[in-house]
Amino acid sequence: MKATSLPPRAPWCAVALLGALAGPGAHAQQAAPADDGATPAPSLSEVTVTGNPLGAEQTVAPSSVLSGENLLLQRAATLGDTLQNQPGVASSYFGPNAGRPSIRGLDGDRVRILQNSGASVDASSLSYDHNTPIDPLAVERVEVLRGPAALLYGGSAQGGVVNVIDNRIPREPVAGPEGGVTGRADASWASGNREASGAALVEGGNDRYALHVDAFARHAGDTAVPITLGCDRPGSPESARRICNSANRTSGGAVGGTLFFDRGYLGASVAGYRSDYGTVAEDDVTIGMRSTRMALEGLWRNPGGLIESVRGQFSHGDYRHTEYEGDEPGTTFKNRGSELRVEARHRPLGNLKGVWGLQLEGNQFAALGEEAFLPPSRTRSAALFAHEELATGWGKLTFGARAEQVRVRTDGSDEGDGFAAGSRRFTPGSAALAALVNVAPGWQLTGNLALTQRAPRDYELFADGPHIATAAWELGNPALGLEKSTSLDIGAQWKDGPHRFTVTAFASHYGNYIGLLPTGQVKGDDLPEYAYTGVKARFAGLEASGTVRLLGQQGVWHGDAGGSVLDLDLRGDLVRATNSTTGQPLPLIAPARLGATLRWANGPWRARLGFDHAMAQRRVPEGSRATSAYTLWNAAVTYRQKAGRAELQWYARVDNLTNRLAYSANSILTQTAFPRAPLPGRSVRVGVQVMF
């Protein structure tokens, strides 16, 4: 297939605009405190950048942060697997090398993945076997914002936002004019896939400038599982207790820097990522992924008049991956895109404060090869948004709105593969209203109401061809209209010292949910035809989490614990998703889940033991495979010690302690390639993290 020459009209005026921001800049947004894993006392005032565009101490939208020791002990090869134990979050799991987070049963383009609040350019929402070009090895913190109250970050983010923070553009100067150097290094080895991985970063500077350099690498073999599986890959055993073609080799790094001025800063970074991994669905198909991302960011405080601060971000990504059949290159996917965001925070008007913004995005996508199932396309969008917050005596009200213009265009193809030219314009609009009420000391109630609209993506409009990852012939519909939803969530939070509890109930109704549904026809090489179709749908569910201090200060059991602290973490979620047009359940929805972890700490030692139980998922569409219930146990121990000015944290963790055989209800492979892709079996990981 011949790609049309449609270079994305990258808003290079962003360079000039952000250059203007090099003058006086705004305060960096407040970051969430890292969890040191010692004697955690979670707070209702936990602050996240994503959930608090105004730097508030209390969040209204459901949100959570994974950082510090919790991130270290939950880190996996993919972003989805790293976050899958967070309430409401599951992984699409296309084997151990590809897994995108889904939130509240919504995945793909309905979950927006950001890097430092900016766009991440890839093709992960297009297909389950496409991983995101983000490796958790290089991540400092991950923020998850659940639900559709993410108007600042894109009208398509109906499920929520996952914001990956890596500090590649430092937002705060090193304290003092003399500055200093800090850094971190990680090294680990895992038995389940014989993985060796490592990462290092160094940051230095003073109160006028800061520099950041990082690098990471991962090399893993096939993943061990509790069942014997066949394998037709040349050079591999015909059968083994491993997932065939699940090895991976990943590396990358970045260089960034920031100049600080009296009233602001200006920073830039360049990052590279490469990964070669097996697709699991086919024994002899591998993917070679390459990604380069450039970013520019500036902040300007007190520009004058009504505006209190201005923040600007520009990013440009160049992504491609090639699918190899043996040693021969097959289909190649290319995506080039740019994003410009400008946010202006106005001065308080009485008890009202807020932020207004402009967002411009553009990308060019092309798929080349015999298995390309959609034509080259380009998408342009422009949006205006506003977020306001009104403080009251009983809490606060927040409200926001977003108006967009989206154009999706394809010139078709001249390769004789049937792709026709087409163009669509959409004007989606979204609005949200939320409230936080302090009902009693330690108690808060929250409520969020959102009306959202999403423009169909290029593949939903123009796809027409065989998609090997889904084992189907996918057919787009150029006549699709806006995807529209009305969503409501109501939550309660309680905190008393180290004890806390949070519960949120949510429901969403879609007047036009765009789903990939079977037509009953067969095309190509006996592939079932699936068409993108607008139907009515409803989602409803519950998320809960909490911590109880069992031993230690303010613990349930009083008395001398010898300096020990013992906490019990509890979590659970469920979601029911239904195609209201047919009355059938929607596919690939996580079952109800429950989990608990005991965490003990005494001096430099910490230990944890926990489990995650997934109930059987029998609410599946007619003709789909149900999944059985399973429980996965895990354990970990860490030890901290000083070595000069450095601090070392040694750790060992065991995943799937009982080596339980389990299959994910979220994974398309459970339906199309059963039984070749179970969840990983028992694996022991040992490692050390050095901070200086």
Indicate the proportion of strand residues.
over 45%
The total count of strands amounts to: 34
Termini separation (Å)? 51 Å
Poorly predicted residue ranges:
1-47
Mean pLDDT: 89
Structural class category: mainly beta
The amount of helix comes to under 10%
* Rg over C-alpha atoms, rounded to the nearest angstrom: 24 Å
Number of helices: 5
Write down the overall geometry: globular
Multimer state: single chain
Largest beta-sheet details: 22 strands, antiparallel, barrel
In brief, what are we looking at here?
The protein is built from five helices and 34 strands. It has helices at 13-20, 68-74, 79-83, 458-462, 669-672; strands at 63-67, 89-91, 101-103, 111-115, 118-119, 141-146, 160-165, 180-190, 195-205, 209-220, 224-230, 239-242, 248-261, 264-278, 285-304, 307-325, 328-349, 352-368, 377-391, 395-410, 422-426, 429-440, 443-454, 464-467, 472-475, 483-496, 499-523, 527-551, 565-579, 593-602, 605-614, 630-643, 646-655, 683-691.
